């Protein structure tokens, strides 16, 4: 049975009924955005990969709690954000390494080398500034900018009011402007 073109919510409804094949499709669909989110949040590729597995294990384990047609993306990132928060609480605070947030610049068919170098330097500066944000602000920035979630979806994912999410984004952007202005 081919479910490849079906919406996420349909697939999750099938997963809730025990369809493992549909879970595999969701894992493949969200592998990149979810892992990117986790790496940006945790700053550690290996820990992010472990959390990725934990998130999808939780999706399977709590599949009966999913109510169709609740947006799957928000539900998934809620689980991921909760896993990150739990990990932050249980671990010793460590600075987020800049390398976890860096964006690589592709050389082939890309910008001129000096533009690429400038772009890479800018990406490193932004990554360093994002790494300094408190976890709740970093969560909002990563979900909004890199994962494209709406404020309403982020509110659901973080368990906060939409106004609080917008406030976190406002304060995060102000902090980023201050950090980046100091470098200019």
UniProtKB/TrEMBL annotation:
Coiled-coil residues: none
SMART domains on file: HTH_LUXR
Keyword field: DNA-binding, Sigma factor, Transcription, Transcription regulation
One of the Pfam families matching this protein, by short name: Sigma70_r4_2
UniProt record, GO biological process: DNA-templated transcription initiation
UniProt GO MF annotations: DNA binding; sigma factor activity
Residues annotated as domain HTH luxR-type: 130-184
Database matches in PANTHER family: RNA POLYMERASE ECF-TYPE SIGMA FACTO, RNA POLYMERASE SIGMA FACTOR HI_1459-RELATED
Family to which this protein belongs: Belongs to the sigma-70 factor family. ECF subfamily.
Name listed for the protein in its UniProt record: ECF RNA polymerase sigma factor SigW
Species of origin: Lignipirellula cremea
